[in-house]
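Objective 1b: paired records.
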Amino acid sequence: MKKILLIEDRTKRQQLFIKETEIDISKYTDIVDNAIDDFYYDIALKLKDDSFVFEKYSMIISHKSAFEDANTSIIEKLKNGCKKAKIPLVFFSGGIDENYYKKSDYELILMNSKVFYSKNLELFLDAYKDGNENILMLLYGKRWKLNIALNVLEQISYFLQINNDKEFYEDEVEENLDIHLLETIDFSYDLEIKDDEIIREEIIKLKKSIYSYIQESIIYE
């Protein structure tokens, strides 16, 4: 089993977070390479001189500002390397206010440090050991499918509440609603789009469909 690489340039920061959540990362040395202290500098050097082997790991998790002045270039190297190796990449930072997930050539997550160092991390690592993990557990916890549905439902309700328009541009809907996340929970609903516009009734139908999904999930989980 390949390991997960966790890159953290400030050891004390990690210690403060895990002290608060009582997560013992040392219990996971068989599946996690915790790149702190000298190990961090070794990883940073290999990334800078392009000798780092991405294929060695199953996924990479890094503090977004772990490389100081070289931050921008190293971040691009991490993105390109993970894309080429087809492995997930997670960036966490206290400066990230909204969680973000995208899957194209590879899976990319941006998340707040408090969310990352929460009990979700322990849950994810335990699931990884058992071979039934999903990267979205880091964001949404054990009942990640249900939580995604609930979050999107809440977004739609708020969106409809503050917008009285009878139709919306497709880009506007995509910017305000994380509908793309519904694909990750095996939820199927095709919004009818005409001339790059989505009528209000279509959004309402989607909302009702998600609500039905949530009801069924609560019954059967």
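Objective 1b, second protein:
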Amino acid sequence: MTISTDTQERFRAVVGDRFSTTDAVRDQHSRDEFWHAKAAPEAVAFPDSTDEVAALVKVCRDTDTPVIAYGAGTSIEGHIQAIHGGLCIDLGRMNQVLAVNAADFDCIVQPGVSRKQLNEHIRDTGLFFPIDPGADASIGGMAGTRASGTNAVRYGTMRDSIMAATVVLPDGRIIDTARRARKSSAGLDLTRLFVGSEGILGIMTELTVRLHAIPESIAAAVVPFPGVEEAVNSVVEMIQNGVPIARVELMDEVQMKATNDYSGFDYPAQPTLFMEFHGTTAGTAEQVEITRGIVAGHGAGEFQWATDTEERNRLWQARHDAAYAVKAMRPGAEMWGTDVCVPISHLTECIMDTRKDLENCPFPAPMLGHVGDGNYHLIFLIDVNDPEEVRLAEELNARMIARALAVDGTCTGEHGIGIGKKQFLRDELGEAVDVMRAIKLALDPTNIMNPGKMIDVERLDDNA
């Protein structure tokens, strides 16, 4: 759609020169990290406060203008593409830590605060925010997609980390979903409704975030295996034996070679687990020794581990470089990332069947994952201008998802639905999708909030 001159002036009346229709700014807000086609908004606004967000949304409501919330732009499934045009509300300027309640293990932040920024801000309190999806994502974006990442096996996901939120609804009203109490049975759990809603129900402008004590001791370990099956079976045994591991990440041999080439490491080009243990000094030492025994029983190679911060960071750098390393494997190609999550008892069979699908794949498709909670990923590195490569990537993605659903898993453990996985949501949840649609229409009857994402709700301009 096209935003009229009168409507543009109404937006400018709210945010002044923090409103832009330039091609460069619009293009910057037209896509996320991975392969989905660009779709630029007609304009971008940069509010400073909840009141300004509410005022912008009221203009969008009055003029039937689509509105897309934007954090750091690091999402994966096409959440921020403006597929119906409209106004992008960039929350990057709303990046203040508003309150730190160290005695209560929580803090209140604006949505533009990044996870690294938050941890730097609270470092001297002895607390930390554990959710680490890899990218330095914004807290608001992480809440919107219900992100998780490497620490989820011990600390949970954003669902577990958000205690309350201030939300601007599609009609411009501002609500608080909860208080700071550690538990409540007061009414419907609106906080959980908005966490993971991908911007289709409202815009979160303040979030109360749960914090954790920095462990007395942190130990990291890296260990290669002769094959993926042995590595995954090791993880399953760790989890089933109650090893309180904080992180356990799998990178297959394709990913390890790419990482070595990109970052200059000399790790064996074999399937490898990256692990981290949190607790007391004695506790982490015990966890490491138990784990050492488990992995040895599955044919593991040299077991490297470290407790020194600098050395731990060096061991983990390979995992943090993974996406950049994949991109460097095939210059000019696009990354198409996908993920599923399955019950831990089905993890090995699902991963090995997925590996069989990749045996004759003509493009790189490294596997990595947060296997401690049954979540694994493929990254297809494809030429998006080659219809056959796109078709094959779609087929491999669909087979991986069907396999996960067949064992009562999910089509996405942490990426979200967006536009990339919308076609699989009904396969997973059936008529529950109709309930989601009813909630969407109850809160947003004119479908201005991030239209076209997650569930299908017709807009007037669909038939224009």
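The two ends are 10 Å apart (CA to CA). The first helix runs from residue 5 to 15.
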